Amino acid sequence: MATVIVVGVQWGDEGKGKVVDLLTGDAHCVVRFQGGNNAGHTLVVGGRKIILHLTPSGILHRDKVCMIGNGVVVDPGVLLHELGRLKEFGVDVTPEQLVLSQYAHVIMPYHRLLDAAREVKKGASKIGTTGRGIGPCYEDKAARSGIRIHHLLDEKVFRQRLEGVLEEKNFMFQHYFGREPLDTNAVADEYLEYGRKLAPFVGDVSVRLQRALERGENVLFEGAQGTHLDIDHGTYPFVTSSNTVAGGACCGAGIGPTKIDQVLGILKAYTTRVGEGPFPTELTDPTGERIRECGGEFGSTTGRPRRCGWLDLCVVKDSARLNGLTSLAITKLDVLTGLPTLKVAVGYRCDGRELDGLPREIELMERCEPVYEEFPGWEEDIRGVRRFQDLPRNTKNYLKALEEFVGVPLSIVSVGPGREETIVLSNPFS
């Protein structure tokens, strides 16, 4: 039996979906533990692409159990639409394959409206949110005024809670944002219907996990976004609204920390970021544009072009500490093929002095200039390589320098988008 947490170590979009899909072959259960449908995991199987936002990536394996933990905020309309899309893809998801935590909080229409209205109100100081209602839903959770999945299964309780919440939200819409109020009955009818459709999937994820561990089953925990979007440890306030670090898996799924065996950090061979916030290694030149085009760096949830830049090892090393990483998986290494020189940030310089590590203050990070180490690139096509020793010499040197600086060994090297385009140096479940 082994438990493995998969987390992103940059600002999200590291390719976690592919790695989770790969590792699911050795897992019995795959658990999503935080975030919402602001995350999109793109999988390529048999040349076909599918994007998942709420359902764990392991759902493509029919003999696995996928779970959506209590730490996830769920838009039930989006989840049902996704299940419908999976059916079109040939995956008819059953309650035996998918368990939705009864304690997960529900994204309501007013959460989405608040998200969008606030971004407009902020103007130039906007965060760059996806507008999916994630933040406002987590706000209500913390304020103890949230609606949970189990509330949708009890009409009387649901209507009572909804009426109390909408009284406050509608006042805000009318008198602060100048918008029309929401109709309580219309919202109630819509969401009670969602509850009826989702009822067969609802269960206690924490209890189910405990039983799986008692049976000696392997469990894979799938995080969304990346470490530096963590609400506590990221580049605040340009962060998401949940704990994206490995510790969030324990709270977001209902499992004790002593049950965790491995933490696998996923990083891209370069760095990307979506939305606002500091990005010291960002490239706004033709090299950055080339990386964006070759890497297909456009948001799977929003379609927005991602900001691209050189690999920042200070960010990765900080993530190794925050997550207690036991190994690393690097993705999109093939995108760098053909670049004559590669740069890697190994430090920062700010106001004429060199900094010791990643600055925590956002104002300081925005003034930082990266200190680069340069490496010769490679011209050889690496997508067909399946053994580390067969990679070009310059590619191996790039990877070995990464390992040495971060102090965490590589276990997986992805050389292309396909499931088979992967070099596995060590299996976290072994």
Automatic annotation (TrEMBL):
Its EC number is 6.3.4.4. Plays an important role in the de novo pathway of purine nucleotide biosynthesis. Catalyzes the first committed step in the biosynthesis of AMP from IMP. PROSITE patterns: ADENYLOSUCCIN_SYN_1 (PS01266), ADENYLOSUCCIN_SYN_2 (PS00513). IMP binds at D13, E14, G15, K16, N38, A39, G40, H41, T130, R144, Q225, T240, R304. It comes from Desulfacinum infernum DSM 9756. One of its GO terms (biological process) is IMP metabolic process. The active site is at D13 (proton acceptor), H41 (proton donor), K141. Pathway: Purine metabolism; AMP biosynthesis via de novo pathway; AMP from IMP: step 1/2. This is Adenylosuccinate synthetase. Substrate binds at S300, T301, T302, G303, R304, P305, R306. SMART domains: Adenylsucc_synt (SM00788).
